[in-house]
Amino acid sequence: MQDNKVALKDGYENVEQDLPAFEDLEGAARALMRLQDVYMLNVKGLARGVFQRVTGSAVTDLYNPRRLFSLTADDCFQVGKVAYDMGDYYHAIPWLEESVSLFRGSYGEWNTEDEASLEDALDHLAFAYFQAGNVSCALSLSREFLLYSPDNKRMARNVLKYEKLLAESPNQAVVEAVIQRPNVPHLQTRDTYEGLCQTLGSQPTHYQTPSLHCSYETSSNPYLLLQPVRKEVIHLEPYVVLYHDFVSDLEAQKIRGLAEPWLQRSVVASGEKQLPVEYRISKSAWLKDTADPMLVTLDHRIAALTGLDVQPPYAEYLQVVNYGIGGHYEPHFDHATSPSSPLYRMKSGNRVATFMIYLSSVEAGGATAFIYANFSVPVVKNAALFWWNLHRSGEGDSDTLHAACPVLVGDKWVANKWIHEYGQEFRRPCSSSPGD
Question: What does the protein in this record do (predicted)?
Fold first, then answer.
């Protein structure tokens, strides 16, 4: 086998099919752990394709229209092993426990075909418990391992070691160590972010004020006089607007089709470099207006609604992004927060505004969460979300810190049009007041 490909016979043809590489398997495992964390999902339910939220001792259904998938004992082991290899026993233990449970059989019956796999899972789980400080569980699992492999000298030594530790400290036999979730140093807003994601995009009721309303956008622009767009004011500070049915199904499909051949792992700016990072998991592509006449029409429509110049160099090319299950982008700003940002290479100033088009529906998850403003917007197929990134003074609006919540069920596509400061001087006049 070469290049992770295998030839399959299908009738008279040989078909080459890509097999997942280790990077793919590791990415899938990390995605499941991400969903487990952000949506507080029960591992046992997640393995059965049932999304259940764990809050204290209560378990409630989060999203269960149907069972979507189920994981095998080996699948659960692979997820647990990824966490184990990272020294992350908080995640490793529940996944390895589920693996052991499935290997044992639903009625505790031993399946000899799974002997080696069960031993491997018991081995990893026992050491994970030991590392987490639960010597009693480590001893119990190690003894079970020896039932299936009594000649294993390493495990026999471990049993003696654990027995000695418990003899020296009898209290350890009854004390369960509390395993802390790994800290994320760069994410200071984790609790708020995850809380907003867990609403799946429903807004808090105290934001429903008379100032928030729906109307038809019919400005003096001839385009909107002939074809008004339904506008929903989502939030006032920061000012966030949702334009319903901004694109048609055919247009959304066309944009996805144009971008698909060029999709690559999304990156973020890190100094002078562009690097893939764990806190942004998606694929993206950039489309020039010359790629298709429809993109020119799209620009005209954005310009009509925003009143801004969206032609290069005053705006960036259309960025199309695809998020698979577990795909996300943790809290971030769209505008540059440092003078050394690569955004300034365009020599057109900072990103004054964001126009984001939802090109697909999502069954669950994937909401856009505004962290400091404390609200989230669900994915609305064919709609477009617009907000200002900068105050009229040119200062960045800190309330626009936002995130793309992980996709729980479905496939999320968006298209971003980022509009820059220069070229907008007479379209959005500046102000000396920091509050404007």
Answer: Catalyzes the post-translational formation of 4-hydroxyproline in -Xaa-Pro-Gly- sequences in collagens and other proteins.
